[in-house]
Design a protein that fits this description.
alpha+beta, 5-stranded mixed beta sheet, 7-stranded mixed beta sheet
């Protein structure tokens, strides 16, 4: 009996500890204020030792975005039930001046202000009469030191708007969703769509559950978007030989420009989804068997690299800054090259060469690593940097592909090099170091690629 009681007390203690180890996040859409309110429940922590962090960057954005400036009404509830105010510190930090033990933090996110001030449409969440589109990293804070803890997430709408999330895509939308999220990175990476004007389509005949989630301020054709997405997914599956995503969502916004200063057209990749913010001028409305799907293939292809095989800086990610990443040319260029193969677009090789040939001097004089470091926060802000990064990476991939085919009598291709990177990351469960890349590529193909590697490292 003593042994049994001891076991039960231990078991109950473990359950209690496991429950306490889970953070509880609630995101509430407020129709009247057009804001969203985020509430975080947690075990008591001391404000002297802990603070909130609002991202200023996210994997693949390669820029600093001032999301903390849109956070308002920061409050915390102490263990004795009193309320204390929070305020923004330097950079991404939100702290509480009064030392206390707190069990709850809440804040509002001003979505209207965010869209007005962020002129790059791809970087902002958005609110409309019957639509709310949220990028996870633009609204969710983390408590530093708690990033790896599981999260019990609740999504609500006080207007009873139906909700869709890429964390658990479904054609059945409800006004309240609860789910368990593995960690903060997964929470921040996802998208959250609210509103009666959100359109959802599950694409037929896909190898994995494939969805289109779209909002448009005019006519669009969900079936055609889905057809192009299915074609893209099939092409990538045929190239790599497998699909790593458990499901995939293509999130599209077709908007009337917020102002003349706002720009659209950039897409953003996520683990199991992509975001595309475009104007109505780019709306997909009709079937087109010759449609250009290059960009769709490219961003979907990121679900292989770098989202599942990456260099230092990309993962684990420093949410408080745009971390220095030395391998943007690999992240972007290798998948640009894959996209040219999947879409059967050999002329893009000449396009890459033209970009490099006509690059400004301040770009040409940079080594590959230096240019990537520069692009860590200026990839799209100065797209000369971005264009030259992906062009150099793509041409390196092209020359390696030619050499691999020649040395193996076409038995192997650059695909084997990429599969080598993916397998290496899976086996080692970490980011690869810069000096490890060429060895992985060469060993994966059985071809010495060091000469090509060294050539492309130079200015």
């Amino acid at each position: 009996m003593k042994c049994l009681l001891s076991f039960l007390f231990t078991f109950i203690g473990l359950i209690s500890e496991a429950q306490n180890d889970i953070l509880k996040y609630t995101l509430l859409h407020n129709k009247q204020t057009k804001n969203v309110t985020v509430t975080i429940l947690l075990d008591a922590i001391n404000t002297r030792d802990h603070y909130l962090l609002i991202p200023r960057s996210a994997p693949g954005t390669y820029e600093i975005t001032d999301y903390p400036s849109f956070i308002e009404n920061i409050e915390a509830v102490t263990t004795n039930g009193s309320t204390i105010k929070g305020q923004r510190g330097r950079g991404s930090i939100i702290f509480f001046r009064k030392e206390a033990k707190i069990t709850q933090v809440s804040y509002d996110v001003n979505i209207t202000k965010m869209e007005a001030e962020l002129k790059g449409g791809f970087a902002s969440s958005k609110i409309r009469e019957n639509y709310l589109g949220l990028l996870g990293y633009s609204v969710f804070a983390t408590i530093v030191g708690y990033e790896d803890k599981p999260i019990h997430l609740t999504l609500k709408s006080d207007a009873q708007w139906p909700i869709f999330t890429t964390l658990k895509p479904s054609t059945s939308m409800e006004s309240e969703i609860t789910l368990l999220v593995s960690n903060y990175a997964e929470l921040a990476d996802a998208q959250y769509l609210f509103g009666n004007d959100v359109k959802i389509l599950k694409v037929k005949d896909a190898e994995i559950p494939l969805y289109v989630a779209a909002y448009a301020e005019g006519e669009i054709n969900l079936e055609e978007i889905g057809r192009r997405g299915l074609f893209s997914l099939q092409g990538l599956s045929n190239y790599f030989g497998y699909i790593p995503m458990p499901h995939y969502t293509m999130c599209y916004e077709f908007l009337k420009p917020y102002s003349e200063e706002h720009t659209y057209g950039f897409l953003m990749e996520h683990m199991n989804s992509m975001t595309a913010s475009a104007t109505m001028a780019s709306a997909i409305t009709t079937y087109d068997p010759k449609a250009n799907i290059f960009s769709m293939v490219h961003h979907m292809g990121h679900s292989w690299i770098p989202l599942r095989s990456y260099g230092k800086g990309y993962r684990p990610f420093d949410w408080g800054s745009a971390p220095i990443i030395e391998t943007i040319w690999l992240n972007e260029g290798f998948i640009w090259y894959v996209s040219s193969i999947v879409t059967n677009s050999p002329k893009t090789i000449d396009f890459f060469k033209q970009i490099i040939e006509h690059a400004p001097i301040y770009i040409k004089e940079k080594s590959l690593k230096e240019l990537s470091q520069l692009g860590s926060s200026q990839y799209s802000g100065d797209f000369n940097i971005g264009r030259n990064l992906f062009s150099r990476g793509a041409l390196m991939a092209y020359e390696m592909d030619v050499e691999i085919k020649k040395a193996t009598n076409n038995e192997k291709t650059f695909k084997d090099a990429l599969i080598g990177l993916l397998n290496w990351t899976k086996e080692n469960d970490r980011a690869f170091e810069y000096h490890e890349i060429e060895t992985i590529l060469s060993n994966s193909t059985g071809v010495d690629l060091s000469e090509i590697w060294l050539k492309w490292q130079n200015p």
